[in-house]
Amino acid sequence: MTHDNAVAVTVHPAWLPDAALAPLRELPSAVLGSGPCLDTARAELGASPSASTADAALVVAAVSDVGSPASVGLTQLPEVPAGGHAIVRTADRTVVLGADGPAALRGLYAVVREVAVARLSGVAPGPGTVLSAPEQPLRMLDHWDNVAVHPVMGQVERGYSGGSIFYADGEVRADLTRVRDYARLLAATGVEAVGINNVNVHAREARLLTDGLGDVARIADVFRGYGIRIFLSVSFASPRLLGGLDSADPLDPDVAAWWASAADRVYAAVPDFGGFLVKADSEGQPGPFAYGRSHADGANMLAAALRPHGGTVLWRAFVYNHRQDWRDRRTDRARAAYDHFAPLDGTFDDNVVLQVKHGPMDFQVREPLSPVLAAMPRTRLALELQVTQEYTGQQRHVCYLAPAWREYLGFRLDGARSVASIVAGAGGGGAPAGGVAAVSNVGDDEFWTGHPLAQANLYAFGRLAWDSTLTAEDVLDEWIALTFAGAAGPDLARVRPALHEVMDGSCQRYEGYTAPLGVGFMVTPGTHGGPSVDGYEYSPWGTYHFADRDGIGVDRSSATGTGFAGQFPSPWRETYESVETCPDELLLFFHHVPYSHVLGSGKTVVQHIYDSRADAVEGLGGVEAAWESLADLVGSAVPVAFDARVRERLDGQRASAVEWRDQVRSYFWRKSGVKDASGRVVY
Ligand code: GCW
């Protein structure tokens, strides 16, 4: 049974407003061939199926549908890269050739983007051929959406944008219009896979795998038209929960047989199904440990079930003891993923991808990269990012995450290989590519993402998964050019610098008034929003800062601490090991230091904490002024509702930032008794 819970709100078009498509829709165009994505391309352009290429100024095709160069009006066909596209511009036409239908559609959106960016920069693309290949084969968004509203977590776990676009009232929505609009937005960024339910799989959601398959197929049908595959999060206990077996032991043949037939049924309903996403033995989710089996046993058993159909298991490395005794100083949550998984390198089947959070803890605004990414060269790896702003301002604070993601992707973990190249299959141990996944920030909110400016994070994720060498500033320009494509030229020229002022340094600013120097957390337990310096200090979650009257930080050195620093390859193990060489922004992640410890800036740790919290809040003045400078464009370049929402969020951000500043500054004054040399007020 499904409900029609469509809510009549005007949904903001995000980065695909009609104005962005209009310049292409005005051209005589032809789309060759057919198939779900080519049909979508045709509908986007309003091209008629019989349009001839002879007089088309824009031609879109998949290479396999192109007989001869002349059939698309060219003298020669380019080498279209695998999974990617070529855009050929001649004096009288633009030809988009995709490696297949989905790639052709993405190529069309690339032209939309180029046209918009040309308007912003004033530089039109000249004749020639541009080839574009995805750096990562897997470019996926994970939804932590529950079908039924969860009593504690709500409908979307860590969601800050209203309800789910997929589910309402305990059912898959009858009206999937929002899902289609979402698929369209994602296709334009290059995203090619979506996990449609929460990795914490509760009872109702587990059944998507069995009696929910009809609804799953409806969702897959929508995404198919945009070249996006779907994955399901499954409960490792499914054979017991759904199959009536008394075990979920991965080495039990009955269990394996149950999964094999479950997979058969899924593929009968969804032939292009991506596979299973699994959170096992983590935060209360069931897993192979209950049967004394390893995570490789568990993952490989599921992989065997999917293999005949070409499916993939995305197995998460986020496994740690969430019932730690805070008195126990030997257990270090940061070590857990490496300790569990590094010894298993080389034992996972080749249709298993191990999905690793970027940091060893949990999506903090500042963490080192996870050493797991350098420790498993014989395992397919995917990097997991968080677009939803759980710990980065919950879509109430502006926090443009692209600069941080770019840093992670470009980080040379062993001194030589970047994280992007490792997950793209160049890790040196022969494992094929995994890719990049991220938790989505989308809900049924009228702006998709709560804070309208948080749309830029969703956009940037897809773009950086496609090409991690793009700069965060260029990606922001693209987003501005598309989102404000309807703005008059001179207005657009004002929107651009104002938004850069608001967004470029926003992540650093957020870091500036929240937890200092990489120590992390200090957030309100449960919601993870707002400050609570000691909120997790005596909790079982393994997230401590150890502040006392003399100092703060976690000793993770090999010499005197938990040994986490030793999980890195050189040169990072040495760099992080020593207080002298550890970068200041990670100092308290790796070391416990006295408040009087002097940083590279010449300030003591405690004075740095005092100053940067206050400076960061002062920096919000520039942000607010930049937005205010666009006030006369509200109602024209900037929609009224967009402006109203941004203002409401900026007000909330200031109030929250002030709270962070005052609580953190006062906490350290009270703890340390060291006066703030700036003389600013502490409480
Ligand atoms: O960051 C934590 C979140 C949990 C989440 C978990 C995970 C889905 O607080 O809500 O659960 O990470 O990544 O599995």
Distance between the termini: 57 Å
CATH-wise, what's the superfamily of the largest domain? Glycosidases
Proper CATH architecture of the largest domain: Alpha-Beta Barrel
Mind describing the biggest β-sheet? Answer: 8 strands, parallel, barrel
Number of domains: 3
Please work out how many helical segments DSSP would assign: 21
Q: What ligands are attached or bound here?
A: 4-O-methyl-beta-D-glucopyranuronic acid
Report strand order across the widest sheet: 6-11-12-13-14-15-16-17
GO molecular function: alpha-glucuronidase activity; xylan alpha-1,2-glucuronosidase activity
Protein name: Xylan alpha-(1->2)-glucuronosidase
Domain Glycosyl hydrolase family 67 C-terminal: 449-680
GO biological process, one term: xylan catabolic process
Write structural notes for this entry.
- It is a single chain.
- This protein is of the alpha/beta class and 683 residues long.
- The chain folds into three domains: 18-132, 2-Layer Sandwich (Chitobiase, domain 2); 138-483, Glycosidases (TIM Barrel), CATH 3.20.20; 510-554 and 592-672, Alpha-glucuronidase, C-terminal domain (Alpha-d-glucuronidase, C-terminal Domain, Alpha-Beta Complex).
- Helices cover 35% and strands 12% of the residues.
- The chain contains 21 helices and 19 strands.
- The chain has helices spanning 18-25, 36-45, 101-121, 177-189, 203-206, 213-224, 238-241, 253-269, 295-306, 336-341, 372-375, 402-410, 419-426, 455-466, 472-483, 489-503, 506-513, 572-577, 587-590, 605-628, 640-672; strands spanning 29-31, 58-62, 85-89, 94-98, 128-132, 138-142, 145-150, 154-156, 167-168, 171-172, 193-195, 229-233, 275-278, 312-316, 352-357, 381-386, 435-439, 551-552, 593-594.
- Helix 2 (36-45) links the parallel strand 1 and strand 2.
- It binds 4-O-methyl-beta-D-glucopyranuronic acid.
- Residues 144, 157-158, 199-200, 279, 283, 318, 362-363, 390 line the site of 4-O-methyl-beta-D-glucopyranuronic acid.
